[in-house]
Amino acid sequence: xxxxxxxxxxxxxxxxxxxxxxxxxxxxxxxxxxxxxxxxxxxxxxxxxxxxxxxxxxxxxxxxxxxxxxxxxxxxxxxxxxxxxxxxxxxxxxxxxxxxxxxxxxxxxxxxxxxxxxxxxxxxxxxxxxxxxxxxxxxxxxxxxxxxxxxxxxxxxxxxxxxxxxxxxxxxxxxxxxxxxxxxxxxxxxxxxxxxxxxxxxxxxxxxxxxxxxxxxxxxxxxxxxxxxxxxxxxxxxxxxxxxxxxxxxxxxxxxxxxxxxxxxxxxxxxxxxxxxxxxxxxxxxxxxxxxxx
Amino acid sequence: xxxxxxxxxxxxxxxxxxxxxxxxxxxxxxxxxxxxxxxxxxxxxxxxxxxxxxxxxxxxxxxxxxxxxxxxxxxxxxxxxxxxxxxxxxxxxxxxxxxxxxxxxxxxxxxxxxxxxxxxxxxxxxxxxxxxxxxxxxxxxxxxxxxxxxxxxxxxxxxxxxxxxxxxxxxxxxxxxxxxxxxxxxxxxxxxx
Lengths: 294, 193
Hints:
The complex is a heterodimer. In chain A, 30% of the residues lie in helices and 29% in strands. Chain A has helices spanning 37-52, 65-73, 76-79, 113-128, 132-151, 187-192, 203-210, 226-235, and strands spanning 2-4, 7-8, 17-18, 25-28, 32-34, 57-60, 85-87, 102-108, 159-166, 175-182, 239-256, 259-281. In chain A, the strands form 3 sheets. Chain A has a 5-stranded mixed beta sheet, covered by helices on one side. Chain A has a 5-stranded antiparallel beta sheet with strand order 8-9-10-12-11, sandwiched between helices. In chain A, a hairpin with an 8-residue loop joins strand 9 (159-166) and strand 10. In chain A, helix 4 runs antiparallel to helix 5 and helix 5 runs antiparallel to helix 8 (226-235). Helices cover 41% and strands 21% of the residues of chain B. By secondary structure, chain B is an alpha/beta fold. Chain B has a single domain (3-192), classed as Orthogonal Bundle (Arc Repressor Mutant, subunit A). In chain B, strand 3 (74-79), helix 4 and strand 4 (99-103) form a beta-alpha-beta unit. Chain A binds chain B through residues 110, 113-114, 117-118, 120-122, 125, 132-133, 135-137, 139-140, 143-144, 146-147, 150-151, 222, 225-226, 229, 293-294, and chain B through 13-21, 49-50, 52-54, 57, 82-85, 87-88, 91, 95-96.
């Protein structure tokens, strides 16, 4: 099997796991030029999924040394499964203190989720500064996604999160990017544990269904508002891009203060578990006046 | 004698955001109350920077619907909420179709929930202070039965204190209702009111 990650943000775009050979997984990042948190957490989650099935894993590092250093800085190399073969020039692990602008690829489970939220909270709220309401809704969205991963996405292979905050000084806009990749049962299998949703047979339809208010695999407990709240609340404070992929399906949502649109896709590969990626941008001062969720 | 007690939510974290933590907090609340009766409980969110809706639901909303407060003489109010955390409280109590009294920063009391009729009734109760069902019925132009029904719901939700009148001449059981004290304790320990 090969996962070829090429160019900019490949796992959020066209990259997919190819090849049927179960004897080896090669993650080829030689042509990677820009990685978002979904790429970082997704690479590590894919490697752990393969490794847990005793499939040897090879990671080919980017030719671009800055990119390789970024993977090193974001702990991708450190979080790969034991005995992963690293091919390419391993950059030195020299790191400046960027605790205020990123969270490296970090394992997530039910034991450490509360501690991680205590780290993530200040990171997000300080990024939004005086806009406490915007910071609060984005924190809530990320925490709901982490809660989903630890409550419904539990597996022995683990889950991983990564966060990157872009101040706008080196990028086109000021934005927050958050990803959580778990290796659990996936959205459709979780929903189907509720007899009400046993009819679901397509992953993208199951993901879209899970984004509706009050839809949960847990029956009769007034649950299942986390994803719809995440979309509805964050879009009131800027532009939000939200992707969820699970099994052979994917749903992409674009939200803004006036509304949101959704695209359902079937994927050529199989995501073992659930991957969620959220990008939130505050409007520039000249853009739409921020609406209050109240 | 009525006792007052306060539960500080920040002991659970500055950024509580999981259902598991909410369950833990709810268990601590239950432990705090134990088998006690006649308690004015204040749930204090001061210091909690941001909580999410799942935590608020698991910790607060499920606690509110878990027991009949009136039967134990317990009243409940929440305080110390930032505007963002108040949003989460409103969302969770509305989804569970329940109510809770919020002590605002300016010392005023507000009933939060999705029932406007009960909110109006609570506001009228605040004006009356200590009263009987007939007083409310007169003030709001309700039948006695209707006033009793509303007061029962408010007392069951811990929004009013309810005590049986002894030696009533009206026949049957008669109750006197009181609104909650609008002050915050700074101790987690049970103290006589």
